[in-house]
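Students often ask why we bother encoding 3D structure as a string. The short answer is that it lets us treat folding as translation between two languages. Here is a chain of 236 residues written in the first language.
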Amino acid sequence: EKALEMLSGSPVAVIGCRGATHTGPIGYFARKLALAGHVSLWFANCSPMAAPHGATAPVLGTNPLTVGLPRDPEPIVADLATTATTYGDCRVAMAEGKPIPDGVALDSEGNPTTDPETALRGGCLLPFGGHKGYALSVVVQILTTALTGATVMPGPRSDYGLSVIALHRDILVDAVDYDRITGELVAAIKAARPAVEGQPALLPGERSAASRLRSEREGVELSDKLYQEIFSDQQG
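And here it is in the second language, the structure alphabet:
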């Protein structure tokens, strides 16, 4: 809401926040700005859960970065953690008694693990793409702490940082040109020869958008274990 207010009188809005807790899916907010015709970049941190590349102890958060891009009828929203798996995915795996993939987490001794509980309680997650995801994670950590004054390694659900850069899509070109160029890229992506016949490449956030629409129609289905996990978190 603050970004929309600022963008009503300026082509650019830069916002920093400290003292925050869990924000939920940032893509929700990026989509809201994109629907209003604005480009936005979001950076968020949390308590240490991820090891730096080449280390085996948690120093960084899962440090998601999100980009919202206007497009008709549905915006493009890239919303990704800089870790190879997410805290939420680990919690779901714990609740459902399932393993997490190989190569995404370590135990407290620095050994690879596929046990989500071991990863979250004494272990750590790994950055996606090795040194590349790690580099992005460090950037996010600095943009959300040094830039905002938030704690560099916050405790659980305390003093998280958030930074937002939002701008009009016509800040450098006409909105018509932005829409045309974006449409050309989307058309090229959809026309690319698919790896699986009849399954064209998806845009960033397209699967999530379809899931959201399905949930709006049919409701959200949760296992009993996952429901209890969520309920216990709310009580805590």
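Translate back mentally: The first helix runs from residue 2 to 7. Keep this in mind for the problem set.
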